[in-house]
Amino acid sequence: MKKIGLAAALVAAAMTLTACGSGAGSAGTAGEIWYSTKNSTEQVHIAMGQGVTDAAKMLGYTGKVVVAEADAAKQNDQLNNLVQNVKPAAIVVNPYDSDSVSDVLARAKDAKIPVAVIDNKANNAQVDVSVLFDSKKSGEMAGEKAVELLTKKYGQPKGVVVDMYGEVVSQVFKERAEGFEAVIKKYPNIQLVSVLGAPQADKATSALNNVIADTKASGKSIDLVNTPTDTATLGVIESLKTNNMWQKVGTAGHVMVISHDGLGDVLQQVKDGYVDAEVVIDVLGVGGIATELLKAYPMSGNPVPTSGTFTPKGQYLNKEVTLTSGDNGPTVLLDPVVVDASSAGNPLIWGNAGK
């Protein structure tokens, strides 16, 4: 698999944004697959775009990216331009606003342009396929890993577990928290402390500092911290360092940490033996598999099925996916993967791209 140059992808995104904004006509665009991304500042979103463009190239198309820069109105204008003027072979969309994007996606449907939605749902819209992450399962797998780690430490699942559950407006974080806490609450000897403290690193640092102070005042100590995303984990690390609680796995005083997503900086902490586990999402696969599904079905004149399995040609963490029927049409939920120090170097993890 070709490794990602994140800086190069960012430059490419900026260039294609300019091209799309110029009102380019439809000539030659039947050989193009466009990806509409929320922003070009976060590495995870750059990697999703690279998944689309790599898959497009593999399938014989030119992959291009247009960037909304966290502006719903801008994204909708760009999508309208794609539908009305560019008229590409297909469009892959990561909606910034799951509600407002529905009108333009309906216009794409009327224009018979195949559309895949990835990462975030497009509410009140019917699209050819949605490829999403199974966020609840991510939380459940983190919970199961936490139970395993606590059992290894104490001989049974017990201890103090802090869940930095994230912003309440994020459906992904809600589902991750629900999955994690549903597992943890099965064990009465685990004390669960739920605290809002993510995704921003500084908020996570402040929130955990407060929890540590309260826990110490009650004569207890924290055994494990779970975060909903890696940016929060960076804040957790800072808090643990400030409180002299940042120790390697297996050493006295080590506070176990479980993180989510697959950011390179956190993967390195897993490899170095400080973070116990990372629940990795298939960032390269979400765009790549969506693009392959578009080519295999609507771009070839057939609807995406709502049952059965699909085996993508590209190399992703998900080797085979299951097709189901969802609110917005055919849907695929990508499975997460839990990695530790022995497996965190997997080159198919987006955070390892370019290394």
Q: Given the structure, what is the number of helices? A: 10
Count of domains: 2
CATH superfamily assignment of the largest domain? Response regulator
Give start-end ranges of low-pLDDT stretches: 1-28
What does it look like?
This protein is α/β, with parallel strands linked by helices. The protein folds into two domains: 32-127 and 283-335, Rossmann fold; 135-280, Response regulator (Rossmann fold), CATH 3.40.50. Helices cover 40% and strands 19% of the residues. It contains ten helices and 14 strands. It has helices spanning 6-21, 43-58, 72-86, 102-110, 135-154, 171-184, 201-217, 230-242, 264-271, 283-296, and strands spanning 32-37, 62-67, 90-93, 115-118, 129-133, 159-164, 190-195, 224-226, 256-261, 277-280, 309-310, 321-326, 329-334, 337-339. The strands form two sheets. It has an eight-stranded mixed sheet with strand order 2-1-3-4-5-13-12-11, with helices on both faces. Strands 7-6-8-9-10-14 form a six-stranded mixed sheet, with helices on both faces. Helix 1 (6-21) packs across helix 2 (43-58) and helix 2 runs parallel beside helix 10.
Structure summarized in a few sentences:
This protein is an alpha/beta fold. Helices cover 40% and strands 19% of the residues.
